[in-house]
Write a structure and sequence with these properties.
The complex is a heterodimer. Chain A is α/β, with parallel strands linked by helices. Chain A is built from seven helices and eight strands, in the order E-H-E-E-H-E-H-H-H-E-H-E-H-E-E. The chains are: A alpha/beta, B alpha+beta.
């Protein structure tokens, strides 16, 4: 934001098909989070183009960006980013509130997605009463509740121990199996191996883009 | 924007952030409360001033004789000036253009007896017009009239408390009381809004008093009422004319300040009203300052609230909250809290003022009140500024990119 512009991404050209599970890897400073933020319309690109589901994403004002985020994208963050004074169910229902879904339907859907991540009994608990893994599962349920085209996860396992990480990855794989497109930023090779494609970034350029055989997380759980 | 769902969301936020709600609500309530009470007290002060003067006619000048301090026209200084009946007639004749009525007043203290009851009272020997000058209200019987003056009747009109003291429940009209050794018939009972002392007075014809005092024609003081239509400037002119007239007639040096004294009620009233108005202005200024302080307080809280919620707002934006809905929810929340607490503060303040009533009379505050238009406008002002104060940080928060807001810890 200063007067000096810093080129973080220097010519990235890649596309993701529907139903893919892509890991974006790279050391810190490689630009992987910036890429994800641009894909998530949380940040804007200076040059180039980005097309999501056939819609060119450019020159968006905040209102439009908010609507696209709501309609197309679900986010999972490393630090969960749940609203601390709302219960698990209310957190999951929040994107639906911004989709102007009625209250009853919101609650039903929220419960349905909490059920999918196995936290139905925890629906009335506040985030502070949940473990890290549970919080991330609530966050995933929240991201899924809006039924987005793409799920973007920024280091979803970064704050979790390995057992919990595998549980979360198992959940992500199951969601992917159901046909959802998912992009994961990670620097952990074992997490990347559980995806179907790995994109390696280094100093703002793609150095490697390969399809791999997926390691199922369920065998570790 | 005003759907039931939005309100529910806002209520939930309010409910789950009690401290925040309490702080902003308390600031607003207190601000309005202090404003209402202060402003009401100012009005109470004015009430007291009006009451001080309300029980006497305001178009009246009191003329007292004094003692000369400057030798003049062959007379030595330190001469006692006295009024007599001719002065009364001269005023009525010479200043007829200005004067509505005149009445003398001779004040004496006397032991008054009725049957076994006795007490010391102030008696005032006056003319019929005195009733207007003091705004004496006759409860029963009548006041002194011209015939009483002419015939030097031994009639008295007694205060309500005199009757109560001497007669108890008995009716005093037509009964005779002993005033310093002479029998007087009670022809009327009066009340006066000037307080208890004014209701412990006894009025008698001034001619009767003069007859008792060895048939003198001396008068203690003169009360001159001017025609209301001559106004304040006319009253001041009459004031000067009277001064000049008496100084000439009684051979007092025009420079002598103590030969004669004139108390001008109109002038005093004007001065006191001005004083009261200045007080009200000061109180109003302080009260206005309170409102400003309230506005600053609510602004600070709003800045803090938005700052505290930056991350939450970032999450909401990532989930699809538009800037409009972010601003809307912050504003609605702030307006809701300020409205409720503002009106609570206002009603509380008004209740306090109402309950005070006459309790602060010793501090010159009588029946403090605030008219509701004033109170409501002040409250609405605070709500509006509270909203404005919320809008600026809310707009800024809505413009922060979600990624920046999310990084905020």
């Amino acid at each position: 934001m200063g007067s000096n512009s810093l080129h973080v991404l220097k010519g990235i050209n890649f596309s993701v098909e529907e139903g893919e599970l892509v890991a974006i890897m790279g050391s810190s400073g490689s630009g992987k989070s910036t890429l994800l933020n641009i894909l998530g319309m949380l940040d804007v690109l200076d040059e180039g183009s980005y097309t999501l589901d056939g819609v060119p994403i450019k020159n968006l004002n905040e209102t439009k960006a908010a609507q696209y985020r709501n309609k197309f994208l679900g986010f999972v963050f490393q630090s969960f980013n749940l609203i601390n004074y709302k219960s698990a169910m209310e957190n999951v229902a929040l994107p639906l509130y911004y989709q102007k879904v009625g209250r009853k339907e919101r609650q039903e859907k929220a419960l349905k997605y909490l059920e999918q991540v196995g936290l139905r009994e925890w629906a009335d608990h506040l985030p502070s009463e949940l473990s890290g893994g549970q919080k991330q599962r609530v966050a995933i349920a929240r991201a899924m509740a809006a039924e987005p085209k793409v799920l973007l996860a920024d280091e979803p396992t970064g704050a979790l121990d390995s057992t919990t990480s595998y549980e979360v990855m198992d959940l992500i794989q199951k969601i992917n199996d159901a046909g959802n497109t998912i992009l994961i930023v990670t620097h952990e090779p074992d997490i990347a191996d559980m995806c179907k494609r790995i994109v390696h970034l280094k100093d703002g350029v793609i150095v490697e883009d390969k399809k791999i055989t997926q390691v199922r997380a369920s065998q570790y759980v | 924007m005003f759907s039931r769902d939005n309100w529910k969301e806002i209520f939930e936020t309010i409910q789950k952030n009690k401290l925040r709600t309490f702080l902003s609500g308390f600031t607003v309530s207190l601000g309005i409360l202090i404003f209402v009470v202060l402003f009401g007290m100012g009005n109470g002060l004015i009430n007291t001033f009006n009451e001080f003067f309300g029980d006497d006619a305001t178009n009246v000048l009191y003329v007292f004789p004094g003692r000369t301090t400057i030798p003049y026209k062959g007379y030595k200084s330190n001469r006692v000036i006295e009024f007599d009946n001719s002065d009364l007639r001269d005023i009525e004749k010479n200043l007829a253009l200005f004067v509505e009525y005149t009445t003398p007043r001779i004040s004496r203290s006397a032991l008054v007896k009725y049957k076994n009851e006795s007490n010391n009272y102030s008696t005032r020997a006056v003319g019929p017009a005195h009733q207007d000058a003091e705004k004496t209200i006759i409860m029963k019987g009548r006041f002194l009239n011209k015939a009483d003056i002419k015939n030097r009747t031994k009639y008295v009109v007694i205060g309500r408390l005199v009757e109560q003291d001497l007669f108890g429940t008995e009716n005093s009209i037509g009964k005779y009381i002993d005033v310093a050794g002479s029998a007087f018939m009670v022809i009327g009972v009066f009340q006066d809004e000037g307080g208890d002392n004014e209701e412990r007075l006894i009025y008698m014809p001034y001619t009767t008093r003069q007859l008792i005092e060895k048939n003198t024609d001396k008068i203690d003081q003169l009360i001159v009422a001017f025609k209301p239509e001559i106004g304040y400037t006319g009253a001041m002119a009459l004031d000067r004319s009277l001064d000049k007239f008496f100084k000439e007639k009684k051979y007092i040096s025009p420079d002598d300040q103590s030969g004669i004294f004139i108390r001008n009620v109109a002038d005093q009233l004007k001065q006191n009203q001005q004083f009261a108005r200045v007080l009200q202005l000061i109180v109003g200024f302080v009260a206005f300052g309170t409102i400003i302080a309230g506005i600053i307080g609510i602004s600070n809280i709003m800045v803090f609230v938005v700052k505290e919620r930056t991350k939450e707002l970032g999450i909401r934006k990532a989930l699809g909250a538009t800037p409009r809905s972010v601003i809307g929810s912050i504003l609605l929340e702030s307006v809701f809290i300020t409205t409720i607490s503002g009106f609570i503060g206002m009603l509380l303040g008004m209740a306090i003022l109402n309950s005070l009533g006459e309790k602060l009379k010793d501090y010159f505050i009588t029946n403090p009140y605030i008219d509701s238009t004033m109170a409501i406008s002040a409250t609405v002002l605070l709500i509006l500024f509270g909203a404005l104060a919320g809008y600026i940080p809310a707009k800024r928060a809505a413009e922060i990119k979600p990624i920046v807001a999310l990084r905020d810890e």
